[in-house]
Design a protein that fits this description.
Layout lengths: L7 H37 L7 H12 L4 H8 L3 H9 L6 H11 L9 H12 L1
Length: 126
């Protein structure tokens, strides 16, 4: 019995898909390396071990020209909590993420989006 014959189009389609997957993997690796470098720059600025979520909260607050005091009042938390969220010392729970998303825009799920978080790290590190 002979193996099935595949057309060149099938092999080409497979090669294109494999290249796309390889490109996605290279992009993830580059993003990871860039995030590590940006976190190092932020540490030099005294911003502890900043998580991507912390950087995103800080970026959105700054984009809205809000002080940490104003954000704390907007979400009903203490100033110390906002400082800890932005420094990466603690991460806000789901209750606070909903309030932050309402105050800063977006949805709670966006704060876990790695692409948005990397953009935030880029801005905060500069």
């Amino acid at each position: 019995m002979e193996p099935p014959a595949y057309s060149a189009a099938v092999f080409l389609d497979l090669a294109v898909k494999m290249e796309a997957l390889a490109e996605e993997e290279r992009a993830r690796a580059a993003d990871s390396a860039e995030a590590a470098s940006l976190k190092e720059k932020m540490k030099e600025k005294g911003l502890v071990d900043v998580s991507p979520m912390a950087a995103l909260i800080r970026r959105r607050r700054m984009a809205l020209s809000m002080t940490q005091d104003i954000l704390a009042a907007a979400v009903g938390s203490g100033l110390a909590s906002v400082r800890k969220w932005e420094s990466g010392k603690i991460q806000p729970g789901s209750k606070w993420l909903k309030k932050l998303a309402h105050a800063l825009g977006g949805t709670p799920e966006q704060y876990g989006d790695p692409r948005l978080a990397l953009d935030a790290l880029r801005i905060c590190a500069t």
